[in-house]
C-alpha cells in the first residue's frame, strides 16, 4: 500500500506499526491518530468534543524508538506520559497564576 511513493517503505511500516498500536486504545474523551513526519511518526491526540476549545497534542516517535524490539511497551509509556502532559496543559487556572488569582479575588 503506497501512501506517498517518495517516502521509503520502512517509514510506512513504522507508521503502520504505530497505527496498529493506536487501534488497541479507546478513550471516552480523546481520539488518537498518527502521520509521517520525515523519518519520525507524529502521534496526534485530539479532544473528541470539538465545541470545547482545547488544543491538539502532538508528540514524535523517532526511528530508534519505532524499531525497538520492546516498542509496544515503550509506546505505551510514551502515550501515557503524553496524556499526562496533555491533561495538565488543559488547566485554565493553577495556583501559580497569581495575576488571575488577584483579578478573581481567590
UniProtKB/TrEMBL annotation:
This protein's name: Uncharacterized protein
Amino acid at each position: 500500500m503506497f501512501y506517498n511513493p517518495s517516502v521509503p517503505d520502512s517509514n510506512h511500516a513504522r507508521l503502520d506499526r504505530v497505527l496498529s498500536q493506536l487501534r488497541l486504545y479507546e478513550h471516552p474523551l480523546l481520539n488518537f491518530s498518527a502521520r509521517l513526519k520525515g523519518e519520525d511518526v507524529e502521534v496526534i491526540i485530539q479532544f473528541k468534543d470539538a465545541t470545547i476549545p482545547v488544543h491538539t497534542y502532538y508528540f514524535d516517535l523517532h526511528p530508534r524508538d519505532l524499531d525497538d524490539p520492546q516498542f509496544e511497551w515503550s509506546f505505551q509509556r510514551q502515550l501515557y506520559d503524553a496524556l499526562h502532559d496533555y491533561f495538565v496543559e488543559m488547566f485554565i487556572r493553577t495556583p501559580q497564576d497569581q495575576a488571575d488569582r488577584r483579578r478573581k479575588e481567590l
